[in-house]
């Protein structure tokens, strides 16, 4: 089922939401420390039921160390539809040599030319998504 002008918003099931997440590679990671929310753009890989990204030392990694509860949002659009997917989960850095070696073999590539040595895995606890019909807003009067 697809949204239309009569029903412009469609809630997606977790499976379809995961498929859209897996088909994208750029998202926004939301973390909160001390009641101060932060949002970081990241490129990621949705793989084997988890989300993986690389980072370097800095505020993002510090925030994840203080509060491992995160949200990741990604979206996309065509001429007819737009969609948005949100994953709520917990983030952990990969510490074991075998886990890091396995992650390094995956097709996760940074979009910017910086060295990122820390792999972070987000284990989803909830995934939601919506698809929207695109078109002009209805007349207000």
How would you sum up this structure, described in words?
There is one protein chain. With 141 residues, the protein is α+β, with helices and mostly antiparallel strands. The chain has one domain: Electron Transport, Fmn-binding Protein, Chain A (Pnp Oxidase, Chain A, Roll), CATH 2.30.110. Strands 1, 2, 3, 4, 5, 6, 7 and 8 form an 8-stranded antiparallel sheet that branches.
Query: What is the third-level CATH name, the topology?
Result: Pnp Oxidase, Chain A
CATH superfamily assignment?
Answer: Electron Transport, Fmn-binding Protein, Chain A
CATH architecture label: Roll
* Weakly predicted, low-confidence segments: none
Compose a concise summary of this entry.
With 141 residues, the chain is an alpha+beta fold. Helix content is 18%, strand content 48%. It has helices spanning 14-22, 59-66, 97-104; strands spanning 9-12, 26-33, 36-43, 45-47, 50-55, 69-77, 81-93, 118-133.
Produce the secondary structure layout.
Blueprint: E1 9-12, H1 14-22, E2 26-33, E3 36-43, E4 45-47, E5 50-55, H2 59-66, E6 69-77, E7 81-93, H3 97-104, E8 118-133
Keywords:
141 residues, eight-stranded antiparallel sheet, elongated, Pnp Oxidase, Chain A, alpha+beta, 18% helix
